[in-house]
Design goal:
By secondary structure, the protein is α/β, with parallel strands linked by helices. The protein is 29% helix and 19% strand. The chain is built from six helices and ten strands. A five-stranded mixed β-sheet has the order 4-3-2-1-10. Helix 4 runs parallel beside helix 5. The N and C termini lie close together (5 Å).
Amino acid sequence: MRIFAIADPHLSKAKAKPMDIFGGNWQGHPEIFFERWQEGVQDEDLVLIPGDISWAMRLEEAKLDLDDIGALKGTKVILRGNHDYWWSSIGKVRASLPPRMYALQHDALRFEGGMGAVVIAGTRGWLCPNSFDFSEQDEKIFRREVERLRLSLNAAEDLRQTGDSLVVMLHYPPTNLRLEPSPLTHLLLKASPDALIFGHLHGFNPQQAADKDGMRIIEELGTIAIHFVAADALAFRPKLIMEI
């Protein structure tokens, strides 16, 4: 089994919201998202989608997008992003999912492949302390997300068997753009997953940002393999993370 990841599909079947207004790298969306998925993913593969799945405001509207993703090849694991306003109680979300699609929240999931197994943990995350315009409300949400990651990693530890790989999904990166340590990075270093994936940032050129003001996306954290998987940054091709 191969494990792929792609974040931020930003689908909007119920009420079309063209994404090319956010830049030329969104040309051909959403069709290109579906085409390139089908080109690279096989039915026995696992695909992780860490957030910003649908622009829908209600679950019944988002179900149109969820069903379209469900019809694609592979087993899918989804996570809530900051624009997934349709994401209500986890029970209702899970009841609305098509076959072979799983939602991650406060817990972990284990999947067996031909050569081993992988445990998937994670949470949405949020703006990290010392980010631009970080407010008291942001602090409250961030602390809540730290606890949710702790719960998920604890659940992963309970599920994990000897030899299992561990992948952590976040929607937001686990640091601010100055790469300052955060409670999220402390938890990640302690858990030492094999891979960390995140998206959220769009139209972001890490090299230009670093040249301008020292801001960049985290690329190293201990021995953890880090993957930035925002759909537009990947040219809408799901990224291969590992094979088990």
